[in-house]
Amino acid sequence: MNAFGADHDPHAGISDKDFQRLSDFIYTQCGIMMPPSKKTMLTARIQKRLRQVGLHSFKEYIDWVLDPEHSGEELIQFIDIVTTNKTDFFREPGHFEYLAQNVLPELIKTSGAGVRRELMIWSAGCSTGEEPYTLAMVLKEFAQHYPGINFRARILATDISSRVLRSASDAVYDMDKVGPVPLTLKRKYLLKSKDPTKKLVRIAPEIRAMVNFRRLNFMDADFGLREKMDVIFCRNVIIYFDRPTQERLINKFCRYLSPGGYLFVGHSETLNNLKVPVVQAAPTIYRLPG
Fold first, then answer.
1. What distance in Å separates the CA atoms of residue 26 and residue 24, rounded to the nearest whole number?
2. Which of 127, 172, 206, 283 has the most crowded CB, counting CB atoms within 10 A?
């Protein structure tokens, strides 16, 4: 028997009881469903964290995270572990074309967004920053096509994971990660590393300046946003939630959406059969009437 006893064998894995405790906790804290099929993935991620913090068993770690008096900063670390962060520049490119060709001209015409006042866009679930920086490039290009209108826009980018927000704020990416960015935009908005052995690029300051990053949990009762949004991108996020949570979340988004504002969801997502106040404007694109 090892020095920690049978219960403290780090190779024993997460017990079904502890996995259920974690699953219930993740659902309550983040709204994310963690079915038994995710147990192997969760085990591997926590095992890595065990080594980092010097604990010897899954149970010891789980007890720590679930203890509201003692988890503290580790709770944020744990949420980083369980949230999936898959994103790309210009992912689902049809959305950005629709934004530039349909949404922006419409919002300028109906509410003066971007001209009489700043246009506000929210990238909700921004991960490591590819989506908000793509939006900033699209907005910058749009403004340059209409130099006479002094187009102004700001992007709020939020995520539950502190780790990905730090990465997003750094705005440094591997060269292969920026592959989907059109060549003309690469030349304008990406800065190559001065060290040629490092295949890294950084987003140009004028693009970075358009984006504000902050941590936000979709399960919070109040998102604490001061301004209404003209456009919300929340793509490939609600697939992790059950239908009641999806409905609550979309209704919350709508409270922060300006009348006539747009909501973009992922191509694998739908708001069909949800009691929400938006109407479909195009596939996976919705609009708040008004």
1. 6
2. 127
Strand 257-264 versus strand 211-215 pairing type = unpaired
Strand partners, 262: 231, 287
* Measured distance CA(195)–CA(223) in Å, rounded: 41
Domain that holds residue 227: 94-287
Q: What is the C-alpha to C-alpha distance for residues 233 and 267, in angstroms, rounded to an integer?
A: 12
- Which among 228, 290, 236, 239 has a CA at the least distance from the CA of 264? 236
pLDDT digits 0-9 by tens, 225-260: 988 999 999 998 887 788 888 999 999 999 999 999
What element of type H or E holds 263? strand 257-264
- Same domain flag for 56 and 99: no
Tokens 């301004």, located at residue:
227
Type of residue at 159: D
The pLDDT value given to residue 2: 36
Calpha distance 25→109 (Å, rounded) = 46
User: Sign (positive/negative) of CA torsion 136, 141, 145, 148?
Assistant: positive
Cα–Cα dist 158/213, whole Å:
6
Distance CA 178, CA 119 (A): 26
User: Does some domain include residue 119?
Assistant: yes
